[in-house]
Amino acid sequence: MLHPTEPAAPGPLTETQARDVLLALCWPDGQKFCPRCNTPSPYQLAGGRLRCGGCRYTFHDFTGRWLNETGLSPLKWMALAQAFTRELNTRETAARIGISYNTAFKALTALRLAILAQGADAPQMLAPGAPLSVFLDGGEPEEQAQVSGTGLPVYGILNRSQRLFVDLLPELTAESVLHFNHNFHLRVARHGSILITDRYKTYDALILCGDETLPYHYLLRHPGLIFAESGGSPFWDFAKPRLKQFKGLSWRRFPLYLKELALRFNLRGHDLTPTLLGALCAPVPKLA
Prior knowledge:
This protein has a 5-stranded antiparallel sheet with strand order 5-4-8-7-6. A 3-stranded antiparallel sheet has the order 1-2-3, with no helix packed on it. It folds into 2 domains: 114 residues, no CATH class; 107 residues, no CATH class. By secondary structure, it is an alpha+beta fold. The protein is built from 10 helices and 8 strands.
């Protein structure tokens, strides 16, 4: 998990200064290497490009990193990270930075993917065939075969040592939650398309985002409140009103928002911007 650091430079920055800040995050020791084969010390070409002396791959300083996923300049990326820190929505972010709504939406998706990629379960979430793998191919979720109904993925919420963890639980699906609800009296609360359960094994709750095919009417109501809604999970009190504000919340994008909220919860009271920039400057994982 990323940890907050002090901002690299106070006050307004120029485009050159913003680029220098991001370059320092991409190459903290100044030693550059090929993003394709990891051969160090590429040689310089005209126009700021680099070429690997091993595989002959031509690239530039930000190739293969999350901030290369859109056409934003370094200064706009820094402004977007600041807007994200302030929890501005997509439309407000676009207006503040002076970019189109679609560009802002794409850039915010890249930022949320960069946050998710820091987690231990990122390989499971981003691997070929996984729900989020389409984003690494530059596509949109609708291009993927749909997983719906009782096969929807489930996540576990765990609060330990004052840190919140959200884990993909590949052994469980929405069908598992319905089964536990019916046969083992697991309490389940519904909030729109979101289902959250009582404590399960070591987890404070299981949580999932359904779609129109999920048989919500199948849920049984058991007496009592679930742990998360009875004061047992400060994270749920933090996350619930924010989840309601996200537009276009779907089961496929749901983990992006969960991971974002976990980061916000863990670093509440800190400036998120340096942490976000560090995530954006990290290499996009190679999971194929």
